[in-house]
Write a structure and sequence with these properties.
This protein has ten helices and 23 strands. With 449 residues, it is of the alpha/beta class. The longest helix is centred in the first third of the chain and has 18 residues, at 98-115. Keywords: 4Fe-4S, Iron, Iron-sulfur, Metal-binding, Methyltransferase, rRNA processing, S-adenosyl-L-methionine, Transferase.
Length: 449
């Protein structure tokens, strides 16, 4: 039962404290309760807890509140590691143990499969996890010179509002970035163009000298600013790129021959990439994910495998070590060119690549789609899922499909089509913690005819 307490407000609004018990958790990390028959999403609360909260807004179908006191804490509650948790919007779950986080993500995936996909996996795979800290190797950091404070801010936006959070460090970014936010701020503050550098794109690869920074600048940099950026790269062993306009203008100013790559040692493959290319943000988890995907797909030496949304070849190259032939399909020409180059650099000769918008409406004309049969198919679509290409799964008639998903809702939608329209069984599914402390749910499912 919920009880209103008429105390003087010290919270966000001048509303009384309300006591309630939390029933469940949203993927955004808000506790869910019902007060006077209306749903309330309460920031900072966990399932099973009795809390006191204040309302921060009222909407037609639900209200929003913020915890003021934890009366009965959850056994899953932990002390957030980051000093900026609750202010910075990059993380929403640091107050929840990593074990509990992955359980909530698994529950979300299974609920979506059951209610949207109308299917339940015959086997639920053990979750794939890695270190929950210092894992993120790709990010876009905001930058802003604040006149009133006479200082520069570099990092992520605040949880509430659109302002940049005032951060000293970040516990989820790779240490080459997360431990140097104050150095970034000092650099921006020292520039003549401090007011026209709105963002810094970061990318971290394997090996030495593997951290690249792309400085977006809205006005031409002075010679002095360029010298400062060069010195910054030399001091911290960063690759320094500039972006004066669109993505096509990105160019490196230090060192002369930059190289970024990541490896799958278990498959003896290396993928070179550019700082703006899409790669998985969590390298240890990515290695485990590729291994699991190949185990589930189980390619035979005589198999022809179709790799859809292949990108730079994250799955294609390891698959080519095991199958007779792998056909990779990707929507961006530059990515396909780099995928071909990666195959050549790895001495892999049994791959072929096609440029195709897999979310288009004219797929029936694609030559790779006219092939009589693929033995196995791997799908790794973006958040929007693979609705358009799923419609052709019956025609392709592959014996096994492995689907890597970054959104449980679109995975469930596509599962419905595979199971109820194309005659596949949902053999198994499981979650993978690619983004610890966030609401992002990565999962993998395997289907068989």
């Amino acid at each position: 039962m919920s009880r209103h307490r008429n105390r003087k407000s010290k919270g966000v609004q001048n509303s009384p404290l309300v006591e309630t018990t939390i029933e469940s958790l949203t993927l955004e990390g808000q506790g869910v309760a019902h007060v006077d028959g209306k749903t309330v999403f309460i920031d900072g609360a966990l399932p099973g807890e009795t809390v006191e909260f204040r309302y921060t807004s009222h909407k037609q179908k639900h209200d929003i509140g913020k915890v003021e006191a934890i009366l009965t804490p959850s056994p899953d509650r932990v002390e957030p590691k980051c000093e900026h948790f609750g202010v910075c919007g990059a993380c929403s779950w640091q107050h929840l143990s990593l074990d509990a986080q992955i359980k909530h993500k698994q529950r979300a995936m299974l609920n979506n499969l059951k209610h949207i996909g109308k299917a339940e996996p015959e086997t639920v795979f053990a979750p794939l996890t890695a270190d929950g800290w210092a894992y993120r190797r790709k990010a876009r950091l905001g930058a802003k010179w604040v006149h009133k404070k006479q200082k520069a801010l570099v990092g992520f936006r605040e949880k509430e509002g659109g302002f940049l959070a005032e951060l000293n460090r970040c516990e989820i970014l790779h240490p080459s970035i997360g431990e140097h936010l104050l150095d970034f701020q000092a650099l921006i503050a020292s520039l003549d163009a401090r007011e026209s550098v709105p963002q810094i794109e970061v990318a971290v690869g394997d090996g030495d000298n593997a951290t690249a920074l792309i400085f977006r600048h809205m006005e031409e940099l002075s010679e002095g600013d360029t010298e400062k950026l060069l010195a910054f790269g030399q001091q911290f062993n960063y690759q320094i790129y500039l972006q004066p306009k669109g993505p096509e203008t990105v160019h490196c100013i230090y060192p002369e021959n930059p190289e970024l790559y990541y490896e799958h040692p278990q498959f003896n493959t290396r993928v070179n990439f550019m700082p703006l290319d899409f790669i998985q943000v969590n390298q240890p988890l990515n290695r485990a994910m590729v291994t699991r995907a190949l185990e589930l797909l189980a390619p035979e030496p005589t198999d022809t495998v179709l790799d859809l949304f292949c990108g730079l070849g994250n799955f294609t190259l390891p698959l080519a070590r095991m199958a007779a032939q792998v056909i990779g399909v990707e929507g961006e020409q530059t990515m396909v060119e780099r995928a071909r180059a990666a195959a050549h650099a790895n001495g892999i000769l049994n791959t072929d690549y096609h440029v195709c918008n897999l979310m288009g409406d004219k797929l029936q004309h694609e030559p790779w789609l006219k092939k009589n049969r693929y033995d196995k198919i791997l799908l790794d679509p973006p958040r929007a899922g693979a609705k358009e290409i799923i419609a052709y799964m019956g025609k392709l008639n592959a014996g096994r499909i492995v689907y890597v998903s970054c959104d449980p809702a679109t995975l469930a939608r596509d599962t419905y089509e595979l199971v109820h329209e194309h005659g596949y069984r949902l053999v198994g599914a499981g979650v993978m913690d690619m983004f610890p402390h966030t609401s992002h749910v990565e999962s993998i499912a395997v289907f068989e005819k």
